[in-house]
Amino acid sequence: MEIDFSQGFQLLFQGRNFARMMLGLWVSVRIALVAMILSIVLGTLVGIAMRSTRSWLRAIMRVYLEFIRIMPPLVLLFLVYFDLTRLSDLNPALPNINLSGETAAIIVFTLWGTAEMGDLVRGSIGSVPRHQYESARALGMSGGEVYRYVVIPQAVRRLVPLTVNLTTRMIKTTSLVSLIGVVEILKVAEQIIDASRFEFPDASLGIYGIVFVIYFIVCYIISSYARHLERKWALA
Questions:
Q1: Closest by CA position to 36, among listed 166, 125, 157, 156
Q2: What is the pTM of this model?
């Protein structure tokens, strides 16, 4: 049996299918970008808390990090999207919670990204040589000034390529949000295939192949930028 690969391309450029695919891609990228912006802010605070001298605070951050790492993102999506709403319905004391799929996705990806960013910030701060802390303190800097003028600028240089790589992982993982009803690029591809299943029976392979290429292009561009930063700062 011969498969007609060209059907996927024919179907893609029929009607508004290509525009719908691009809108689906924008939904994926939008969720990832909003979650990453929030994750950078919150993850920085979590990372600094992980370096705290207070053992109880480090323990709380460690439990949070391990919980997020152990729990699959899909389970977190279901917990936030379905169970949070159900919990508010069962308990009158709680405010009515009715999250959209995209809002639930942003919450989950922010929780995940904050944990990952926190660990990256902790590692970046820890990689600054100890003698630089001691030299700064010997010059009369306070603890806050040491972080502001010595530690943070060096940690950020190490952190940016890692943050860009985390962004590509987040974009790829957004394919899960179609399972809670968010119409992102993979869901759009599925809808296009289902709507023309009889007219283009071999289109699925081509359409999913195009989705793969689109993901690859977006992530490759971002990863290339991360490698560029690594090379540039390695020479600086």
A1: 166
A2: 0.83
